[in-house]
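Input structure tokens:
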């Protein structure tokens, strides 16, 4: 169910914004907290489902607003249990998210844009093109729209968080506030290739974890993979991150996707160690996920373990991240609204398991 263009969706509003909206319509602002509880925690699709607010109040609400939760347009499940969801907003923009269950940890990888304009060469989202920013409601709606409870949220889907900083900051507020989804700040991670103004705002305006997608410690080489390097060098971004003393529990890290013969040499390892030594920034090593027709492949397990061992013995915290959802193109760097790119609307509705 998409939201009605004639009614105001409440999903994506802060408590203060909802209080003002209620007052504008002659309603008691004190109902804001309960309304947001039913929307963000109980995921109601209709005000009629609310049991502790008078019917006359919910009837007035229904006249000018709606919960605004957008359920997935379609979905496909991986053999490993992860699920890729396709969403479509009222403007027809597509975006994807991935649910990754792992014991008690239930992670959702969410999008902040439909497509992306960063142009990173090894990312499928860029190939999908640029279709616009998502609102805070569409960002948080990926959490409330799926039929699973989520413990961790990762801004690592389609789009660049620093390129949509206002809505990402607002979404983080909704995710972590008691009147919102009440997720622990330590369980929210924002992944970025780095745009200096946006990154500075995310560092100052949120307390969530920050991951910088590095790909190479050499500026010219990284610029060929991540064009944003030319304007905002990774070394400058790392210096900015270093200048922020993280609160207890907040993590700063770099994501390093390892590609055989491209960025996994001894020289890359030595420069990575030099770049991050003494910074307290963690390194997450990820396997590369080839796209159809791709000539590149991931570094092998032995090389990845060598990188990890060398980093750890140098005093740099490091880990190897396991791949999930490869068979449904749901792994890191593979989100590109693939369910929409090659499928008619009629056929998409038949993809749902």
């Amino acid at each position: 169910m998409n939201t009605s263009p004639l009614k105001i969706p409440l999903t994506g509003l802060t408590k203060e914004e909802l209080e003002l909206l209620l007052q504008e319509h002659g309603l008691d602002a004190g109902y804001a907290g309960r309304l947001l509880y039913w929307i963000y925690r109980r995921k109601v699709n209709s005000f009629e489902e609310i049991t502790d607010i008078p019917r006359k109040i919910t009837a007035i609400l229904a006249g000018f607003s709606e919960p605004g939760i957008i359920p997935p347009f379609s979905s496909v499940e991986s053999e490993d249990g992860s699920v890729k969801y396709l969403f479509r907003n009222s403007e027809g923009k597509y975006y994807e998210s991935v649910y990754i269950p792992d014991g008690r940890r239930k992670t959702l990888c969410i999008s902040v844009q439909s497509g992306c304009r960063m142009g990173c060469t090894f990312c499928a989202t860029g190939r999908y093109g640029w279709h616009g920013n998502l609102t805070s409601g569409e960002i948080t709606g990926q959490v409330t729209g799926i039929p699973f409870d989520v413990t961790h949220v990762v801004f690592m889907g389609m789009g660049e968080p620093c390129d949509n900083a206002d809505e990402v900051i607002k979404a983080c507020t909704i995710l972590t506030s008691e009147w919102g989804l009440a997720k622990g700040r330590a369980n929210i991670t924002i992944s970025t290739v780095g745009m200096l103004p946006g990154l500075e705002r995310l560092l100052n305006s949120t307390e969530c974890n920050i991951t910088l997608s590095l790909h190479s410690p050499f500026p010219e080489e990284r610029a060929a993979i991540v064009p944003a390097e030319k304007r905002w060098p990774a070394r400058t971004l790392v210096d900015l991150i270093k200048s922020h003393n993280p609160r207890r529990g907040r993590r700063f890290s770099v994501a390093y996707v390892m590609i055989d013969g491209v960025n996994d040499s001894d020289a890359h390892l030595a420069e990575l160690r030099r770049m991050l030594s003494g910074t307290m920034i963690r390194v997450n090593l990820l396997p590369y996920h080839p796209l159809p027709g791709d000539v590149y492949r991931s570094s092998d397990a032995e090389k990845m373990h060598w990188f990890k061992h060398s980093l750890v013995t140098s005093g740099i915290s490091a880990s190897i991240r396991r791949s999930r959802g490869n068979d449904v193109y749901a792994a890191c760097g593979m989100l590109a609204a693939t369910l929409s790119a090659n499928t008619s609307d009629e056929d998409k509705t038949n993809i749902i398991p």
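Residues 340-353 have pLDDT under 50 and may be disordered. The radius of gyration is 21 Å.
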